[in-house]
Amino acid sequence: MLNTFILAGGLSRRFGSNKLLYVLNGKRLIDIVVENARPFSRNVYLVAKEKGPYRDVNCDGILLDVFEERASIIGLFTALLKSNGEDIIVLSGDMPFVDDSTVNLLFKEHSFNYTLFKINGAVYPFPGIYSYCLTLDLYRFIKKGGRSIRKFLKCVNGKIIEGKNSKHFLNINEQQDIELFNKFKT
Asked: Which long-range contacts (CB under 8 A, 24 or more apart) does 140-149 make?
């Protein structure tokens, strides 16, 4: 089992409020993601800009981003810095259907710097398994102004596996995505 880091530092601009605190079926989105991560995780950590909104989340710790700027690449870098030199699982806090069946596919295939899914030609940086050995290259990329995880991944070797176009990759980004959540939850 690996440690899992859930990125929770976004602004939720398209959603209109902190989407990770939005209640779906009686649970906040962030609580659903943490709960879903437990079966495949040694520990579950949040990576955020501030601890306040997440103080009562049942996780093993909240890490604050090491840079002030808000970008998922900053969250990934923070998680790798705190990984104790181990490979880690990184999830996005807005993906309520990632579960052990999805992550087990990553485990089976993992052997490189990172292992991710591609669906319909699009690479999904989350969920993913990332190796600590990427930390220095990622730091250099960020310091040169790089902010796109997908562009960074093109600079380093990794493994991308074909995934199924399924509910496991649904992101809650806008209010209308709640309808998709309700459709898929059954």
From this structure: 141/73, 142/67, 142/73, 142/74, 142/77, 146/73, 147/69, 147/71, 147/73, 148/73, 149/72, 149/73, 149/76, 149/125
- Integer CA distances (angstroms), 137 to 76, 140, 155, 176, in order: 12, 5, 9, 37
Supply the pLDDT for residue 42.
97
User: What three-state secondary structure class fits 114?
Assistant: strand
pLDDT digit string, tens, across residues 130-140? 999 999 999 99
More confident residue, 95 or 173: 95
**Residue 21 Cα to chain centre, angstroms:** 16
Whole-model pTM?
0.94
How many Cβ atoms sit within 10 Å of the Cβ of residue 165?
9
**pLDDT class for 66, splitting at 50, 70, 90?**
very high
Residue 167 DSSP symbol: G
Q: Which domains does the chain carry?
A: 2-184 (3.90.550.10)
